[in-house]
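EI: anyone free to look at a 320-residue chain?
SC: sure, send it
EI:
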Amino acid sequence: MNTTLSSILQAENLDHLLTNFTDQGVTDSILAELSDSDLKDLGIDKLGERKRLLAAFKGGASTSTVVPVAAAPSGVETPVTASPAIAVTPAEATKESPFVNSLGMPFVPIPRYDTRFCIWPVRVQDYEAYCMASGAQFPPCDFPQDSYHPIVNVSWDDAIEFSVWLTGKERAEGKIAKNAVYRLPTDLEWSAAVGLPHEPEATPAERSEKVPGYPWGLRWPPPKGSGNYDQSLEVDSFEHTSPVGSFPANAFGLYDMGGNVWEWCMDWYNPSQEYRVVRGASWSNFNPELLLSSARDNHTPDLRNLSDGFRCVLVGESSR
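SC: here you go
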């Protein structure tokens, strides 16, 4: 039986290569002995995929799976190398054992809320699966991205439609309970996830830029490797978006809480209800005020922008 091999390849969206392994006599019992050159011979062409598979194979236990993290280019540390065990339900999820959904999106708990956060923004491959299943239009992008980059050029409305589709899909498959819901984070949930204390102000507009500090700490400018921001800051090598997980996670196991893409939140920015909140800054930002963990920006819900993406959260009880 190749239960471990099959589950790892499925988590990496490489299950179509299972026959390559079985035809060469690869079984679960010898996974830990495979080398990088072996994986090349088995048809794994991408270095990042080989690294993640080797890490997963070293783990070996059938109760574990790989949480895929895109390979970073030379000079950028890839923070996740281990193969953590999967939580069966969101209620059981921990930083070390996330709940992983049917698209391979890992979810972990955050402080102060009974909410499970995806550890990174929705990726190109996640949104592509949605478009293929629903007939929604895949958003154009005028710079190169691969499957592990965050989806961009999506509106708040688009993000809501994705969340509704994912909720329906996973309820029907029995992956989550009938009362569980995927949605965007609220503004205050996002604050908790980035490590801010309670913010007493009534609206996101009133909270914006009130608390000092950045996702990497208090100092300015940002240190090298702290995130994907405008190239003028000289902290990373990416011209546009970067693969999710290319920089160190925060204390709660969450990646890209600063930089890469602005992330839509559920809330209206102020009582006028014209604009929705976005958080976290992006690859195109260099302004110190916008890079604050407490900074908010505001966009109309129908705006599509090459700096805007989104992150899903999961609330409610779950079952398989």
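EI: Strands lie at 99-100, 106-110, 113-118, 181-183, 262-268, 276-279, 296-299, 308-309, 313-315.
SC: 👍
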